[in-house]
């Protein structure tokens, strides 16, 4: 499957699941103190300009960053998910877009958040996505990547009460740190945690600064 076909499948899958997904995750952040703390660290580093929440889904993380004082907007591949986000948080800007090819100008952003949004990017495509994040960030601006830790991939055909066509890629932090270094980032923090209510799930979180 070509990358364009993969992107089409991702967008279509989240379109199908948008309403159910939004209902399931919208209030989850309030139950996740570790995630809130990591986002607060990111917010302390992402100052002075606009910040992109890439893969913003129904907008709950965009809204949280806004509550921390950031000038933040959301980007998502799924038009239906963007509609959900605009309905949930009408005061915030959201747009349809792909992390593979962001529309923002070079050195125009003060931060990029990608929380569980690189999980659908194949290993061969991830370096290009990281280079794109590097392109749009000003020097010393942070990127935060969160992803499921592990090995290999899993194909999903049904989730969130909808028929979908998604591949989930799990990764090891060391491998992602190497890719970040090659893309021009300096890693300042790497941690792994288990979200509340998800026993056995390991989420890796990396914060790196653009050099």
UniProtKB/TrEMBL annotation:
One of its GO terms (biological process) is methylation. The keyword Acyltransferase does not apply. Residues 51-139 form the Methyltransferase domain. It holds the Pfam family Methyltransf_25. It comes from the Bacteria. The keyword Transferase applies. SUPFAM superfamilies: S-adenosyl-L-methionine-dependent methyltransferases (SSF53335). GO terms for molecular function: methyltransferase activity. Gene3D superfamilies: Vaccinia Virus protein VP39 (3.40.50.150). Keywords: Methyltransferase, Transferase. This is Methyltransferase. It comes from Actinoplanes auranticolor.
């Amino acid at each position: 499957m070509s990358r364009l076909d993969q992107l089409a499948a991702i967008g279509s899958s989240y379109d199908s699941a948008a309403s159910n997904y939004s209902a399931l995750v919208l209030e989850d952040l309030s139950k996740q103190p570790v995630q809130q703390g990591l986002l607060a660290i990111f917010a302390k580093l992402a100052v002075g300009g606009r910040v992109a929440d890439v893969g913003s889904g129904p907008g709950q993380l965009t809204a949280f960053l806004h509550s921390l004082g950031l000038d933040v907007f959301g980007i998502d591949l799924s038009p239906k998910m963007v509609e959900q986000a605009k309905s949930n948080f009408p005061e915030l800007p959201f747009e349809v877009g792909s992390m593979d090819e962001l529309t923002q100008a070079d050195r125009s952003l003060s931060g990029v958040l990608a929380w569980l949004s690189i999980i659908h990017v194949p290993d061969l495509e991830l370096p290009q996505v990281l280079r794109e994040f590097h392109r749009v960030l000003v020097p010393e601006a942070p990127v935060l990547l969160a992803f499921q830790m592990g090995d290999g991939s899993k194909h999903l055909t049904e989730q969130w009460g909808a028929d979908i066509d998604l591949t989930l890629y799990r990764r090891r932090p060391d491998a992602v740190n190497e890719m970040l270094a090659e893309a021009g980032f300096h890693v300042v923090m790497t941690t792994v945690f288990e979200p509340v209510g998800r026993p056995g799930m390991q989420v890796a979180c990396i914060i790196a600064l653009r050099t």
